[in-house]
């Protein structure tokens, strides 16, 4: 009896899959070049969407599961190397997100997300050393800043200020509003650089001003 029920379930699933309408929708640039390939199942995005530049190079891939963003999205630069990649689950950021330096192709940042909530993030110098970390899992989200040899030189948060370190020992605390405001401006600019072509995405910022 159990075997019969299992067989009926398998037949039902096979019938549903056979009835599902699958197709690939294509969009084109005015010059006729392929712009987008969109896999559809019963009219919903399902699979890997691929978007191209007018010259035919790959611009972006986005993964869908029956109309919802689910899986990895990758944005590519003009040279074919990835600029940014992130994962989603049920239309929410979930997993490890990464950005890359365009000139060295090394990792620029990495952040952890769970069901749309950001956890710990790390930013890297072009030499691969850790530049700063951001921990969102606290009452006051905190930062740690490192020099290019990965020595800690400052830690703290935007609300309470920063401790400055020398040889792993605190030698002063900074609560100057102008320095906090400058830090906020730089962090906003770094975020905007992903979408604003007027901001140099390959710029390495210097945070040593916090302890000067």
Question: Any overview of this molecule?
Answer:
The structure is a single chain. By secondary structure, this protein is of the alpha+beta class. The chain folds into two domains: 20-80, no CATH class; 89-212, no CATH class. The protein contains two helices and 16 strands. The protein has helices spanning 2-19, 177-192; strands at 22-28, 34-41, 44-45, 47-52, 58-65, 68-76, 82-89, 92-93, 95-100, 107-114, 117-124, 130-135, 142-146, 152-157, 161-166, 169-174. It has a 16-stranded antiparallel beta sheet that branches. A hairpin with a 5-residue loop joins strand 13 and strand 14 (152-157). It starts with a helix and ends in a 20-residue tail after the last helix. The model has no long low-confidence stretch (mean pLDDT 89).
Question: How is the secondary structure organized here?
Answer:
Elements: H1 2-19, E1 22-28, E2 34-41, E3 44-45, E4 47-52, E5 58-65, E6 68-76, E7 82-89, E8 92-93, E9 95-100, E10 107-114, E11 117-124, E12 130-135, E13 142-146, E14 152-157, E15 161-166, E16 169-174, H2 177-192
Antiparallel strand pairs: 1-2, 2-3, 2-4, 4-5, 5-6, 6-7, 7-8, 7-9, 9-10, 10-11, 11-12, 12-13, 13-14, 14-15, 15-16
Q: Structural class given helices, strands, pairing?
A: alpha+beta
Tally of separate helices: 2
Runs with pLDDT <50, length 5+?
none
How many β-strand runs?
16
Query: In the residues, how many domains can be counted?
Result: 2
Mean pLDDT, nearest integer?
Answer: 89
Bulk shape: elongated
The whole-angstrom Rg is 23 Å
């Amino acid at each position: 009896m159990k075997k019969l029920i299992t067989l009926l379930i398998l037949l039902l699933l096979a019938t549903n899959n056979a009835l599902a309408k699958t197709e690939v929708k294509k969009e084109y640039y005015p010059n006729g070049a392929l712009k987008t390939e969109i896999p559809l199942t019963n009219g919903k995005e399902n699979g890997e969407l691929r978007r191209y530049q007018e010259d035919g190079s790959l611009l972006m891939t986005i993964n869908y599961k029956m109309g919802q963003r689910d899986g990895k999205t990758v944005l590519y630069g003009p040279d074919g190397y990835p600029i940014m990649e992130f994962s989603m689950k049920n239309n929410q950021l979930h997993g490890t997100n990464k950005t890359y330096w365009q000139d060295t192709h090394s990792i620029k940042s990495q952040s952890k997300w769970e069901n749309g909530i950001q956890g710990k993030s790390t930013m890297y110098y072009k030499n691969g050393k850790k530049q700063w970390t951001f921990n969102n899992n606290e009452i006051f989200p905190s930062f740690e800043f490192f020099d290019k040899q990965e020595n800690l030189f400052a830690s703290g948060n935007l609300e309470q200020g920063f401790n400055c370190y020398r040889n792993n020992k605190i030698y002063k605390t900074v609560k100057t509003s102008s320095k906090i405001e400058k830090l906020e401006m730089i962090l906003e600019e770094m975020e905007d650089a992903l979408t604003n072509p007027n901001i140099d995405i390959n710029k390495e910022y210097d945070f040593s001003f916090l302890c000067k």
